[in-house]
Amino acid sequence: MEWQYSGSMTKSAGELQRLVDDVILDEKFNKDNLLGFNITREQRRMDDFQATSGAFSPKDGWREASVRLHLPKPGVEHEDETHAPAFIVDKIWIRSPLEVLKAGFRDITARKYHWFPHRLFRQRATPDNPTAKPERLVTDLYNSDAMIRDHEELQKRPRNPDDAADIEYVVGGVMVYSDSTHLTNFGSASLWPIYAFFGNLSKYLRLKPSMFATHHLAYVPSLPANLLRYYEDTFGVPANAAVIRLLKYDLMQKVWLLLLDQEFMHAFEHGVLILCGDGITRRVFPRIYMYLADYPEKCLLACLKTLARCACPDCTTDKCNFWKMCMKKDMADREKNTRKDTTTLQDTIARVRRWIFEDGTAPDGQHIKKTKLGFFSMAPVRSAFSQRFAAFGRNVYELFVPDLLHEFELGVWKGTFTHLVRTIIAAGRDGVQKLDERYSMTPTFGRATIRRFGDNVSAMKKMAARDFEQMLKCAIPCFEELLPEPYNSIVLNMLFELALWHGLAKLQLHSESTVDALKETTGTLGQVMRAFRRHICPHFATRELPKETQSRQRRQAASGRNQQPASSSPKFKAFTVLDTPKYHRLGDYARSIFETGTIDNKSTQAGEFEHRRVKQFYRRTNKNRTFGRQIALEVRRAHIVNKITQLQSDTVTTRHKRRKPKATQGARGKRMHLRFQDSQPLPHTQPDLHFHISTDKRYPIKLDDFLHENDGDPACENFEWDLKAHLLRHLPGGDALPPDYTPTPDDIYSVQIENSRLYRHKVLRVNYTTYDMRRDQDSINPRTHPDVMMLAPNGASHPYLYARVIGIFHVEAYFAGESLDGTDDTDPETIHVLWVRWFDLDPHAPGGFKARRLPRLRWAQLDDDAFGFVSPTQVLRAANLMPAFAHGQSDAALPGYSVARQEDEEDTDWNYHYVGIFADRDMLMRYYGGAVGHQRDQRGKPGPSPVAQEAVTRLTGDAYDDEIEEVPDEEATNLRDSLYSNHEQQLESDGEEPKGRADEYSDNGENEQEYDDDDDNDEEHTDGEDSEDDGALGPEDGESPMDDDELELARVGFAPM
């Protein structure tokens, strides 16, 4: 303990415990090995390591590089670009991509690589439908069309004459990510890393931090401050904004030209022989399939003007038509106007650059704007990827795939949520206070699926993308009836479609039918979003939120464009989400899935996670100007240490098992569940088990005492009779009883509970197979996560039954006398029991995909078997039930105090609850139906479910009679102007231009739409450090079953795809 509290104060209690368990108590630990140890010397030895083969080749290490930027000056002519004044940008830390590729494929993890891309199918033929055709599936890059095409082309080309016949020719799938990150919460220290991932490795493994599957390629510098001083010293005037933007484009492209060196391009064309980690030599042909980046980064890499007229990186659709997303003409225009890296375009860029350097033309001059570059909003810079790969028929613009995290979660949904808050404020009353209160009362779900919300959600302070995702999943109960009708219905329709689209887009396994559903849902989403803008926005004078006002004031003060002080009063704010490239790109998601894999493959979330590790390494540096080099060394050291650990004979880390303190006997009380402080450790759950409950007997409760203490509680009425009736069916011979059998008094009296004791348990773990054929686990705790779902009987109107678990216990039961099967066996049997309170489906509030509403539940009435007992084998998984806040609370279903309620519910219940069908992807597919990993759909039949058919009916129908399919450009402009004219007039009257902040890469002078209102919105909040788990959860409340996938794969042949 003295060591922890001395020296650095960053040593947490967890790290101290890990030091003791994994090092000091390890049987291989020998303190004599540390005699003479010096950390500085050992780090130097590691940095100077000069092995020439194996996993530690120094060639994949870091080196310092520099690039030369030629400086243009409007009005100054030069012989050519190479004769213009140049500035050398140094301290660029890079690694050879080819050597990184070799190291990755030599790594021991290469044993898990998929060397040959393949098409994946599911067999849909059944005895009832033997002619059903197989349906194609897609999960990863290695079963996508792009990689399959490259593999097939590779097998057709002539082989290298020097290769043996058994040398395999394989594609090395590379995925790249880059983005700048702040290294501290305060100060200006930042790093601009480029990461690489290998698509041959399953995403389920690639995204695990313990796999170390993210490879650092380079740390890109920003434009140095002394460059601007050098420019002013050379030309006598400071560089204008257009020149600075041009230099930023040039810097990034030249860094990539350094990375895509001759060795890499030779391997791209001819392949490179690698002795892979599985002991097989292969000729690997590297292929870059996608570049993961946020919108400004994509524009920088593709050399496009940010938020200009043609703001989309994939097509040249005019931004005034973005609001038509997924209309027929919009989809036709996407195909017609797809960006292509043609020789004509390349010649135009070269010609314009000659004008800039040889003729002194301004980079943003009118002469250039009249060219093809100006018309398609392109910068006068040719992408490094175009320079390297255009000769091989590669289209640079195909690299920039959709990004769900920035485009939807932090884009469309965040913008929509923000405007909903503005609208509620404009509606008056206390709507925002109710919204915050409802979110704060929303229960958690899972261990981290839905976390606890704060008390001021509407302020959106320091929120990560996951926070906005969780807000969307819970939005319908929270927004219900905060606006009057008909606005309430339109908002709820929109929220339902947003959640459905998000759930389908984020599926980790897609089939042809789910991709078709995503296409149709995208079209419907466009309809409801346009309906929201058309029918709601004009009726509310929405203004800036306080946070937006402060951001505007900071931007105006920093720009220096207006000498007058910024107004402190909130400005009118229109709903502009539909006019953004992020919204426009939603129409590209469905078609990209089979081309390059599911959307989660393309999310920038993996890169944002790796930023955390970079920030941790920064803390170890001396924080001076060379921290980039120090971080590079730390990354290299961590890589070597990890490889040494993997190459040791005992590769499995076995943690020393600590002796757990004996739990104290909990006080016997009225409630059936255990308290948080009652310890009941539960060991690791085997993945092939359906459920797992402790066998501990330290918390018994006498049945007679329990009934006496709760005499008069409606929940305990008929408790003993119902319990023994349940036990009757689980004793020998009970399974032969018909479902409608009514026990007789003799049956009940013959069922005996040994010592009349119920042995209470704290938690029930339920394992299940997910929609994408993996094993997952839910933890049911009556105190924290009590709600469960079960399959409904055949013929029921709804596929599932819902209940709240009041208590988990087991009994030792036996027959007094002859059992039902005619034997005289009186040995007690252990029977696990769940005591539950039932929900009924509310028939007055139909839910489902056609109604665009969540299923609504009400408590079962006391005269209709409101309480009962079920076996844990009947539980399908946990249910996400959210209170219907708009419908209030009462004690009508359960008068007075009852042990059946949660401790914080006092003497009332929420009248209704909504089923969170969007809680996670598996939950969504249980309602949508047809999932591969679910043996049968909700109705007990394989194949497409009735719920899915209902969804198709909903999607093919006309959602809004007044939806405009085709609107002429002039008419569309008038429609848009009619929505925003009053807002723009107010802005003009305040002396401010009616347009948003220009991004630092945007084309100054274009009519730009606002990209982001939040100056603080960077990756620090995009996906920051994981918050602590709910303080009410104990270690027995759940575990990560991720490692069980490999065990399940070995046992039954499936798990990780």
From TrEMBL:
Which stretches does UniProt call biased (Basic residues)? 654-673
Q: Which InterPro entries match?
A: Plavaka
A Pfam family found in this protein is: Plavaka
Region Disordered, residue ranges: 543-573, 651-673, 983-1057
**Which residues lie in Acidic residues bias regions?**
1001-1047
- Domain of life here? Eukaryota
| Name used for this protein in its record | Uncharacterized protein
What's the source species for this entry? Answer: Dichomitus squalens
